[in-house]
Specification:
Elements (H helix, E strand, L loop, with lengths): L9 H21 L3 H8 L4 H35 L5 H23 L7 H16 L13 H22 L11 H12 L20 H13 L5 H7 L1 H20 L1 H10 L5 H8 L2 H17 L5 H17 L1 H20 L3 H25 L8 H18 L12 H17 L5 H4 L1 H4 L1 H17 L3 H27 L7 H32 L6 H11 L17 H14 L14 H15 L8 E6 L11 H5 L2 E6 L17 E2 L2 H9 L4 E5 L13 E7 L2 E6 H5 L2
Parallel strand pairs: 1-2, 1-4, 2-3
Antiparallel strand pairs: 4-6, 5-6
Helix pairs in contact: 1-24, 2-25, 3-4, 3-5, 3-9, 4-8, 4-14, 4-17, 6-10, 6-11, 6-12, 6-25, 7-8, 8-9, 8-14, 10-11, 10-12, 10-13, 11-23, 13-14, 13-15, 14-15, 14-16, 14-17, 15-16, 15-22, 16-17, 18-21, 18-22, 21-23, 22-23
Length: 714
């Protein structure tokens, strides 16, 4: 037998890839503007080293817990369905923990059984079951080319995300702190009350993300991490890894392995790869569930266990972020309609049952958002009914996929419609109109990819690809058009805010949708140029094609080297510069306030029913704000002195924000709130207004008052 060429050795090949990426990265960094490059190469590391004892151990605990749970759940899935495969079983195990948190939280949270011991007991039961049965033989194969590209994407992301995570005990992005506050409430008080789990108090109930709040609480409970915000930030890197893997899996399902790998690399041309880690909010991390769910549902290798997992993922996506999850559900629903148009009535009927079941599982998030209080255990029973509907429907699903020949015309029509919108770019669709400027690589590559599908592919598989890839974009365009047309009718109303919010969230959906036709284009190039196509993509995402010094970091594509610079600069110096402690988003006095409030909880004076009246000059996170709700989970009733706020419409409609005028304060104090937090005395309270209160804390403009009756009753 002839010796294999030395370059075909996996280790040698990996070293060669590292060398190529290193050369591209160094060249890209060299072309950065000096101000951006200084973020990466300059700055002292003492502050970063000082925070590591607070972030390294939570990271190790969260990563270990999530990994152990993934292995246990994945092994159970593989034992139940050996045909699922090791990769899908592992992916199902990773998102399975998220699904479990959402369903178990509604079932056990209101009665105080959503605890660390419950989670570990459930995992132990699964381990015992696995130990008493024979596991199928697991054959580990070398990674496919597409999976290797995905691993490369993960490695590139790690250079930015791991330092950023270790330097950020609080996620470094504005207006995302309501979610860890809700998770902390579960951790602190040991109960989850669906209609009373918003201690932050800033936003409308429609802005809550119940499944994500429960998942972060589960990570904190299972890893024994407190405060919960540390568990949330410790999940930055695992969530980034899952984003890349789920994107690869979706791309592989609709167009093959290479397209999936290219899709993972092209995530760097979106805002998602960097925004997942800095926000950890539902509007970004939900794409993990959306991609996995659609991949499992659309995969040509129809497997009933995979379909069940996909529908559970989509239902949990809706409960993690209504808008992103609903768009993913719309793609799934349209795909099921295709089954009817293909003449496969049994698949269509089963699909309707799958959609109905997923909708029932997701229903609690709608009920919570609309504040339609229902007694326990109504939500848990509705979710159980949804699970039963999915399992019953999947049993009726034929084991073979329908023939797509009848809807070939629909695939072509959909693709042509999207291409027409790209070429026309109507002014009524203002968001689509600016995409060539904000995402030039993705916009051009997506259009070329769709055109390539029409010209080169006429097989059934290509029809499926065109339908799926075009649907992602077309549904975004249709949703945007409906919102733009309706928005003038509801300006300055809660409905108008909701429509505007949908337009803002489509800002995340569009780049994700562009990825897959673009990945198909570079996947086609990889056939004649197996090494050249990935190299081209790396050059496109690494080279800074324009100057982003004007503050386009959040809304525009930026080069990977620019992302590295911003992320590592934030890791070295912190993000929350409005506070004296830029990593914890609080001053030392405010952190001491948290310690005192936790002591009041331990003493039994503060319970789930406690609300703290909070007088604050502002709620702008760019400034210094007292965030006791995020660190303790206690309900924060805010009275805001800043008169520029409009507190009656939009995202604050239905919130607990109130105007801090004398009449409102007098009315609030007449109800004798048990505790009062005063920040910078924004309304100059007279001494007689708080005569019935004793002062527990007063430092650097932060005061904590407790009603005297609480002391007398102890």
């Amino acid at each position: 037998m002839r010796d294999r060429h030395p370059l075909s050795n996996p280790t040698t090949r990996a070293l060669r890839h590292v060398l190529v990426v290193s050369l591209i990265a160094v060249g890209s960094i060299a072309t950065l503007p000096s101000g951006t490059r200084s973020l990466l190469l300059e700055g002292r590391l003492e502050s970063f080293a000082a925070i590591l004892p607070y972030t390294v151990w939570p990271a190790l605990r969260v990563w270990t817990f999530w990994t152990v749970a993934t292995l246990i759940v994945g092994a159970a899935l593989l034992r139940f369905e050996p045909k699922l495969g090791v990769f899908d079983a592992a992916l199902g195990g990773a998102i399975g923990l998220w699904v479990f948190a959402y369903i178990a939280g509604n079932a056990f949270g209101p009665i105080g059984l959503f605890r660390a011991w419950t989670v570990w007991t459930a995992l132990a039961v699964v381990v015992v079951w696995l130990w008493r049965t024979d596991l199928p033989k697991v054959v580990l194969r070398s990674p496919s080319p597409g999976l290797r590209l995905t691993m490369l994407a993960v490695g590139i992301a790690a250079i930015a995300v791991i330092p950023l995570q270790l330097g950020s005990p609080v996620p470094p992005h504005l207006d995302v702190l309501a979610t860890p506050a809700s998770a902390q409430r579960i951790v602190t008080f040991g109960r989850y009350l669906p209609f009373d789990n918003d201690p932050y108090g800033y936003w409308t109930p429609l802005a809550q993300c119940p499944a994500l709040e429960l998942f972060y609480a589960l990570l904190a409970l299972g890893s024994f991490t407190d405060p919960a915000v540390l568990a949330m930030s410790a999940a930055m890197f695992p969530m980034t890894v899952l984003l890349a893997i789920s994107t690869y899996r979706f791309g592989r399902a609709i167009a093959g392995d290479i397209t999936g790998g290219m899709a993972a690399l092209l995530l760097f041309a979106t805002i998602l790869m960097r925004m997942v880690s800095v926000t950890m909010h539902g509007r970004t991390v939900t794409f993990v569930l959306a991609g996995t769910g659609l991949a499992f549902l659309l995969d040509e290798r129809r497997n009933r266990t995979r379909v069940v997992l996909g529908m559970l993922a989509l239902a949990t996506a809706v409960a993690s972020h209504v808008i992103i999850g609903a768009l993913a559900m719309a793609v799934a629903g349209t795909w099921i309609v295709y089954w009817l148009l293909d003449g496969d009535v049994p698949s269509f009927v089963a699909g309707l049952g799958l959609l109905a079941g997923a909708s029932l599982i997701a229903l609690p998030t709608v009920v919570i958002g609309l504040a339609l209080h229902v007694p326990y255990p109504a939500l848990a029973l509705i979710q159980c009914l949804g699970v039963v509907a999915i399992v019953a429907s999947v049993r009726r699903l034929p084991e073979t996929c329908p023939d797509r020949t009848r809807t070939r015309w629909l695939a072509w029509a959909t693709t042509l419609l999207v291409l027409s919108a790209f070429a026309w770019r109507p002014h009524s669709l203002s968001i689509l109109e600016d995409r060539p400027d904000r995402f030039p690589i993705l916009f051009a590559s997506c259009g070329l990819g769709l055109a390539t599908m029409l010209v080169l592919d006429v097989r059934r598989r290509a029809d499926a690809l065109m339908s799926a890839a075009s649907l992602l974009v077309l549904l975004g365009i249709a949703t945007e058009w409906a919102c733009v047309r309706s928005l003038p009718k509801f300006v300055d109303t809660p409905v108008g805010f909701a429509l505007a919010d949908i337009l803002y969230k489509i800002d995340y959906w569009y780049p994700y949708a562009f990825v897959f036709p673009a990945a198909y284009l570079y996947g086609r190039l990889a056939r004649p140029l197996p090494a050249g196509a990935p190299l081209l993509v790396l050059l496109l995402v690494f080279v800074p094609w324009r100057d982003n010094a004007g503050g386009n970091f959040i809304s525009h594509q930026i080069a990977v080297s620019e992302w590295w610079a911003h992320a590592i600069g934030t890791a070295k110096g912190g993000y929350w510069w409005g506070a004296e402690s830029p990593r914890w988003a609080q001053t030392p006095a405010e952190l001491e306030l948290m310690r005192i409030l936790r002591g009041e909880i331990a003493a039994g004076r503060i319970t789930l029913a406690t609300h703290i009246a909070h007088l604050t000059p502002h709620t702008l996170m760019g400034k210094n704000v007292v965030l006791f709700s995020m660190y303790t989970g206690i309900d924060d009733d805010l009275y805001v002195a800043d008169e520029t706020y409009r507190l009656d419409i939009g995202g604050t409609a239905g919130s607990r924000l109130r105007r801090a005028d004398p009449a409102t304060i007098e009315e609030a104090f007449a109800k004798r709130p048990p505790y009062i937090v005063i920040h910078d005395d924004p309304v100059s309270l007279a001494a007689e207004a708080v005569v019935d209160y004793e002062e527990l804390f007063n430092r650097d403009g932060v005061r904590l008052l407790r009603h005297r009756t609480l002391t007398q009753t102890q």
